[in-house]
Amino acid sequence: IAPGFRLAGPACIGPAAAPCSDRSGNDLDRSLPVRVAAFAACLILAVPATAQRHQLETLTAAQAISRAGAASPEPVRAVFEFKVASAAKAKTDYYLDSERNYRSPQNLGVAIRASAIPALTKKYGSDLKSAFVGKTVKLIGEVRRLSVGKNHNATATQVEVTTAGQILGVH
């Protein structure tokens, strides 16, 4: 036994000690296989989740619109990369668009919610419009088709950004 290393014996010694049994976890020889099995199970469960995170496809605006239309009403999780053609602030949110006309069927919109704006202004400055327009943005999220308009008779394709970390880069 290495110096400073103790076996689990003190828990089983003395008049006020807990009773020792094979099920108490005090027998190191028997608990080691259980520990190894538990560790292996954690690795097996964690690897697919990690692998899935790295398998997200990077979509252009046109690809995102096509996939969202095909999957509607379900969202499509991916990484999106496109050049920002226009931007606008509305109430507490901020919007980025891949087309100059946000009503265009070819437009991929990004709704940046108020929760993400403080960190984004800290990173990119207070003028988010000049920070994004004309630049290529890369972000992660879910794209979906939405019914819009007063009578919900039009559709838009949009990615919602709720945290600044969803915007992976601007160049």
Structure description:
- The structure is a single chain.
- By secondary structure, this protein is an alpha+beta fold.
- Helices cover 30% and strands 29% of the residues.
- The protein is built from 4 helices and 8 strands, in the order H-E-H-E-E-E-E-H-H-E-E-E.
- The chain has helices at residues 28-54, 61-71, 117-124, 128-132, and strands spanning 58-59, 76-83, 86-90, 93-97, 108-112, 136-148, 154-161, 167-170.
- Strands 1, 2, 3, 4, 5, 6, 7 and 8 form an 8-stranded mixed beta sheet that branches.
- A hairpin with a 5-residue loop joins strand 6 and strand 7.
- The chain is globular and about 65 Å long.
- The N and C termini lie far apart (58 Å).
Main attributes of the structure:
8 strands, 4 helices, 171 residues, 8-stranded mixed sheet, alpha+beta
SSE layout:
Layout: H1 28-54, E1 58-59, H2 61-71, E2 76-83, E3 86-90, E4 93-97, E5 108-112, H3 117-124, H4 128-132, E6 136-148, E7 154-161, E8 167-170
Parallel strand pairs: 1-2, 5-7
Antiparallel strand pairs: 2-6, 3-4, 4-5, 6-7, 6-8
Order of helices and strands: HEHEEEEHHEEE
Q: Please state the structural category.
A: alpha+beta
For the residues shown, what is the average pLDDT? 83
How does the overall form come out from the CA principal axes?
globular
Q: Please state the CA-atom Rg, rounded to the nearest Å.
A: 27 Å
Strand content: 25-35%
Distance between the termini: 58 Å
Q: Work out the helicity level.
A: 25-40%
Number of strands: 8
Low-confidence stretches: none
* H/I helix tally: 4
Largest sheet: 8 strands, mixed
